[in-house]
Task: structure prediction
Amino acid sequence: MEKIKEGSVVALRVNRTIIYIVCILLALLSILPFWIMFVNATRSTPEIQSGLSLLPSTHMMNNLRVLLDKSFDPVQGFLNSFIISGSATILTVYFSSLTAYGLVAYNWKWRQPFFTFIMCVMLIPAQASSIGFYQFMYKLHWTNNFLPLILPAIAAPAVVFFMRQYLLATLSLEIVEAARVDGSGEFKTFNRIILPLMMPAIATQAIFAFVANWNNLFMPLILLTDKSKYTMPIMVSLLRGDIYKTEYGSIYMGLALTALPLFIVYFLLSRYIIAGVALGGVKE
Result:
C-alpha cells in the first residue's frame, strides 16, 4: 500500500514538472517576439539586415534621434493615441456593462430578440461599412476629428456578449431586489453594486479594448489627414515611406514605443483578473 502511495506521489510530481516545463516554454515563446522587437530597437539598420540577434546593441539613442527627426512628432502621436484609446475603452466597458445588465436584470418582451440582434451585428465586418461611415462623417464635418474614433466604441457587441455571460454566472438578482427595496435608484444600483462585482470582467475587456483601439490603423488612416492628429500606428506605418533609405532601427524603435503602453495597461489590470479567478475558485 505504501509503495502504491509513493508511486502516486512520484507520478504526480513528474506530471507537475512536465506541466511547469510546458508552461515555461510557452511563456518564452510568447515573450520572444517582443524581446526581439526591443533588441532590434537598439540595433542599427545594417545589424538588423545581417541577421537575428538576442543581445541588445548600442544604437538605441541614434534610432530614437532618427525617429524624432521625422516630419511628425511621436510625443504628439502618443498623446493622440492615448486620448482615443483611453476614451474609447471607458465608453466600451461602461456602456457594454450597462447593456449586459439590462439584458440580465430586466425581464421584458423583446429581451431575447434584442440580444439576437446584437449578436447579428457582430457578423458585420467594420470594413464593409467603412465607406458609408466616412461619407456620414464627412457630411457632419467630423473628419480630422477624434469623435468618430471614440463614440462608436459605445456599441461593442462582442463585449456585451462577454459581460452578459459573466453576469449570468455571477450576478444574484436578490442583490438587485434588496437594493431596490432600500430605495436605491437603478443607475445608483448599477454604479455602486454591479460595477464592482463586474470588475474582473471589466478589467479583462478593458485590456482587449485598449489594445484594439491603440493598434487600430484602418479607420484613423481614413479619417485623419492632419499630421498633428496622427496616432502612433499611422506614424509607424509612415516610417517605411522614406524614398532614400529605410531606417529599420527607427521602425523597431517606433514599434517598441507603441507596444510599451500596452504592457503598462496589462500589468495595471492583470491583478483584477487574477482576483476574479481566485474569487470564482472559492465561490460556492
User: Anything to note?
Assistant: The CA atoms of residues 16 and 269 lie 28 Å apart. Residues 2-40 form the longest helix (39 residues). Confidence is low (pLDDT under 50) at residues 279-284.
